[in-house]
Design a protein that fits this description.
The complex is a heterodimer of chains A (85) and B (187). Chain A is an all-alpha fold. Chain A is built from 3 helices and no strands.
Amino acid sequence: MTSTNLRYEVIRIYKQLLHLGRDYPLGYAYFRPRLHKAFSAKADLTDENEIRRGIEQAEFVKKEIEALYYLKRYRALRQRYDKTT
Amino acid sequence: MEFHEVVMTKEALALGGQISQLERLPFYNLYSPTFYHDPPYTRHHTVNMFRTAIVRSARCAAQAATRVQRPVIQRAIRAPFVQSRISTPATAFSAVRCYASSSGLAQEEVTGRIIDLLKNFDKVTDASKLSATSHFTNDLGLDSLDTVEVVMAIEEEFSIEIPDKEADAIHSVNQAVEYILSQPDAH
């Protein structure tokens, strides 16, 4: 039962990352194969704790991408509104 | 993306900085249907959102009616807010009404749309194996992650949300078609 739950969790984080990747600065076509590779590299994990660690890592990457977008937005707005720079 | 950013910022300025919490979220296209597939914003949220907006606009209109003797300056300041609140829900409300109409999709149409979608999927290299009965893994050579992507694409194509369990059970084109046909709000 826990293995199916873990499976759904992995799928959920994969979907969230895919959604986030649509606005990736280098393009979705760059982002998607790399995400796929990163997930399939861990496809053979069977230990529950290791899978949990992988999910945590994915969550961390998600936060990083969000931070990247915030920064990009901040820079874009600043460029438009800030006349001094 | 750039376009919406600019529009949203201008609107925000026109509203005197009164941006709602939702609009302040960065890098989400509020006008794209895919946004509403993402948790935590489901369709119910948007309906509620519009409902509160309508209630609020009605309250504003009622207040405006009762306070006719208000000073001119105060009325002038309030005017743009009232106007903008009324104008947005009017368009949004009609969009919600469109959602309510039943689709009645034919099986051939659903199959055709799913096959077209798979044709555009770059991992499917051998288009000759693509048919109404092809299996994602066995015939098309997709792995489970690709299957997740295909299911996501199907969700977007038919503007529905497929729960985890059902999404996990879809492994072939005809399973997907069956699922779509069983959903009354797919279109």
